[in-house]
Amino acid sequence: MGKLELNKKKKEDALYNTAFELFTTKGTNKTTISDIVEKAGVAKGTFYLYFKDKYDIRNKLASNKTKDLFYAAYQAVRQNRIYGFPAQLHFMIDHILGSLRNDSQLLIFVSKNLSWNVFQEALDGQMPDNDLNFYDMYLQLIKEDEQIYEHPDLMLFSVIELASSTCYNCILYQQPVPLEEYMPYLHRAIDGILSSYKKDSSVCSS
């Protein structure tokens, strides 16, 4: 990467980091583009080289943060040598929730902004260490388990949406119960989701 590209990347990162700080402290509605560029130390025109408006940078931030959570969870699966897709998915959910429990601002930001479009962008985003995206890696886990699921993208979205929405209060307020107490019930619900998307092997072979 040349000097010009490095400078562009530095400015873009400054905008992302500043926007995340302001969105999680002031809120999106009370944050202006002027607030972001002033705190980031870049010209206002520079902002529009990368983003359409503050909602564009918010959505891209949510996608990037979600992608980072996915990637870290996937790496943990491989490093811990977890085998079998259901076990791998449960492990990834535990890893993601552990990360969110350790960062309440990230939990609030992701939970508020995880739309279907943001989710799809996170799936399609290229991973840091190779040319694959997370969705390709996710499909590879399913393929290795030799199980066929209908609409694996919707299945993953259902699992992530369930986990993030139901665990939000458990993590932040210990309500209706602390996260540790709720987790067994969450995993049962995830098993139910997996079962509902599973294709009948007899139908697949016919």
Automatic annotation (TrEMBL):
Keywords, sorted A to Z: DNA-binding
Q: Which Gene3D superfamilies match?
A: Tetracycline Repressor, domain 2 (1.10.357.10)
Q: Name one GO molecular function term.
A: DNA binding
Where does the HTH tetR-type domain start and stop, copy by copy?
A: 9-69
Protein origin, superkingdom: Bacteria
DNA-binding region per UniProt: 32-51
Under Pfam families, the record lists:
TetR_N
The molecule here is called TetR/AcrR family transcriptional regulator
Query: Taxonomically, what lineage is the organism?
Result: Bacteria, Bacillati, Bacillota, Clostridia, Lachnospirales
